Amino acid sequence: MSNTALPTAGNRTVGETLKQFAQPKMAMMLVLGFTAGLPFLLYFSTLSVWLKESGIEEALIGFFSWFGLAYSFKFVWAPLVDRFDPPGLAKLFGRRRAWIFVAQIGIALSMVGLGFSNPTSSLAVTALFSFLIAFSSATQDIGIDAWRIEAAANDDEQATLAAAYQYGYKVGMVISGGVALVIAGVASFPVAYWVMAATMGLAAFVFAIWDRRYGIHAAAAAGLILLTVGFASAFGSFAGVLEDGTIGHTLMVGISWLCYLVAAAAAVGFVIAATLALKSPPDGVEFSASSLFLGIGFAVGAFLVVAVIAALLGAGLPAAFGALGIELERSTVAQAAIYIAAAPIIACAIAIPFIRRLKPDAPQLRNPTMAPFLDFFWRHGWIALLILLFVSSYRLSDIVMGIMAKPAYTHMGYDAEAIGIVSGTYGPWIIFVGVAMAGFSAVKFGLRTSLIIGAIVSVLGNLTFAWLVNQPSSSLVPLFIAVTADNIAGGYAGTVFVAFMSTMVAKSFAGTQYAIFSSVYSLGPKLVAGTSGVMVQTFSGGVDAAATVEGYSKFFLFAAVLGVPAILLSWFAHKMKPDREAVLQNAPPPGVDTGTGSSSDAAERA
Questions:
Q1: In the chain, where does the domain assigned CATH 1.20.1250.20 lie?
Q2: Residues in the chain with pLDDT values less than 50
Q3: Quick one: pLDDT at residue 604?
Q4: What CATH number labels 329-581?
Q5: Which DSSP string corresponds to 10-42?
């Protein structure tokens, strides 16, 4: 028997590295990334253009963004996804794939329902299906994350799977944020959502058959379609920036069409492979039509149960507040959201003195559940509060501004098609310019300087929108300038900030403490961002006033001001260090599995 070791990350050749991306699971990860990215913009961002065109006020449009909090609270129902087998489907697909399939059915049904709603006459129904898209998508994320982690053979493969997932995710966002708006501009928003539902259904079909004899060929063809469509949209977007007739423009258009031709050929291969896959039974699994119908019935039933509960809560909560004599005015709701956003920071400030009094041998600091949370505050003391304020404020201006960006485009007079081309198709790809610049800056100037630059360019990116809304909509050039500036700034700031958060965690609790930072980074700003529509109307003359160009301009200036605290705190980021060593000296406490043990340890645990 040969004892030749498999090549490791350090000594792989280029060919061996590329083979990692040629594995069947990589094609499937592309598809799953696509199904995760597709609904992300449809529950609010793309919908906000429809709402604005339907005459819905900015305050209500802003409140719709709170449905995205489903992603922040998905840990509440994650244990159900982890431990419960969906009837029928678990027998056919296994638990992880079964839940992903259930969520995908829920997403598709939600998109169909949203297409049949009318924001002008039935805004509550539109809101219900918007929430269901977000809820189903968050549920899908739970299953995809678990499947990706379990599918990886080692830590190196986690990175390649994540890369495939991120690319698929980006293509999904281009389709839902760009192509969907173009379809809406050419046809209508209902048609756009129905096309997106059909696309999700097709992706769910690919995921369902990929383990059949020819299913992986269908998945590979679908992955190639996503890959080439992504490249085609990127090159097509860059062509839109260049002047017609130039060599650069002609080259970009030519490459774009070449990618579309490859995608068309892959589509033919997909149809053939999918047909053959349907004729062949899945390997190692006894296919049962009754199990499939039972599973689909469960998925539809679960969707209806969640829909009924959400509808009852949506109707019942305002009635309950009314019975208590509490009037839910827009300004009151906005104030409550800001108070809730500040509550976690206040709670931490109250808890820090008690946590700091704990002795190093305190059992709480070694408890598998409590230790990751207590360790951070025990080591940093009051500096922890400064870190949390920095984390919650660094991207605050971007998040608040972003909620009203597309309604502002519509208010200016840009139609859905123009917004889709510039913001939805061109915008996502230009982010990578900012990401690349951030990587170079961190290496060249260091993380502290890069954090300061990131905070400054975020403010400057927001200021371009205050300039944009005062420009005529007869030309796409101002829109291209604003979207380019904002996305480069966002890509830069987001990258250096992720690096900063990674340096703040203890290695023994990296996953949990990073999750805490992620929650603080997103939860508070998202709550505040939901009030952005109220801000626009307030700046336009009052909470109940119609939005004006002046109101939008003042709002974007205010959003830029929200980035000033991040600039100031960035100067002191290098001093945000703990004054105590971790009790466990970066060794995991008893009962905490870091996933870095030896293979024999893993086998023992299994």
A1: 20-74+95-211+285-321, 329-581
A2: 1-6, 9, 586-606
A3: 31
A4: 1.20.1250.20
A5: TT--HHHHHHHHTSHHHHHHHHHHHHHHTTTTT
